Amino acid sequence: MQLGERIIVMGNSGSGKSTFARQLGERFSLPVVHMDTIWWMPGWVSRPIDEVYAMHAAAIAEPAWVLEGNFSAKPTQALDERLARADCVIFIDINRLTCLYRACKRRVMFSRKTRPCMTEGCSERITWWLVKWIWGYPRRARSGILAWLGEILPPKQVLHLKGQRAVKNFLRELDKNH
């Protein structure tokens, strides 16, 4: 299966986007860009939006990448710019209970540490905002993303991986064919 050299990975917090993106990067020798490292400065301080857009533009100008993260609850100009450069969009669609469980597990695993896909100085935490974000994602963002994905035309590939089994099967198929 050919995914191209510029792959977007989207999904809810806790859906496994970062891990999946890292796995794709390793399999295809592509650099991985995490939107969280673009958005957050140390101490969970939001980067000024003009800097975010500049860093995003620099990232997507590169010849090859796996870029994971949504950047917003609904498609934005930045997401449209990313799509213009992308060969493939993968939406990881995991139920919110699993996402919530994974966020809690991640908090325990990275207690007082920074995850590899985060800006240094952003130690793992669970906030009420994150819980509400994860729980409200299906209602707030999922339908907008699905509508946006439905408008993407060939030759760009769109993959909607529904559930953890679909993600595992997809990676297994990649391993067979790669």
- The total count of helices amounts to 7
The portion of residues assigned to helices is: 40-55%
Work out the radius of gyration: 16 Å
Largest sheet: 5 strands, parallel
Strand content: 15-25%
- The whole-number mean of residue pLDDT values reads 89
Report the uncertain regions: none
| Terminal residue distance | 8 Å
- What is the count of β-strands? 7
Give the class from helix and strand content and strand pairing.
alpha/beta
SSE arrangement, N to C: EHEHEEHEHEHHEH
Shape: globular
How are the strands ordered across the major sheet?
A: 2-5-1-6-7
Question: What does this protein structure show overall?
Answer:
The structure is a single chain. By secondary structure, the protein is of the alpha/beta class. It has helices at 17-28, 35-39, 49-61, 77-85, 96-109, 128-150, 164-177; strands at 6-11, 32-34, 40-41, 45-46, 65-68, 88-93, 157-162. The strands form two sheets. Strands 2-5-1-6-7 form a five-stranded parallel β-sheet, sandwiched between helices. 28% of the residues are buried. The mean pLDDT is 89.
Outline the fold blueprint.
Layout: E1 6-11, H1 17-28, E2 32-34, H2 35-39, E3 40-41, E4 45-46, H3 49-61, E5 65-68, H4 77-85, E6 88-93, H5 96-109, H6 128-150, E7 157-162, H7 164-177
Parallel strand pairs: 1-5, 1-6, 2-5, 6-7
Antiparallel strand pairs: 3-4
Which short descriptors sum up this protein?
single chain; 178 residues; alpha/beta; two-stranded antiparallel sheet; 7 helices
Brief rundown of the structure:
This protein is an alpha/beta fold and 178 residues long. The protein contains seven helices and seven strands.
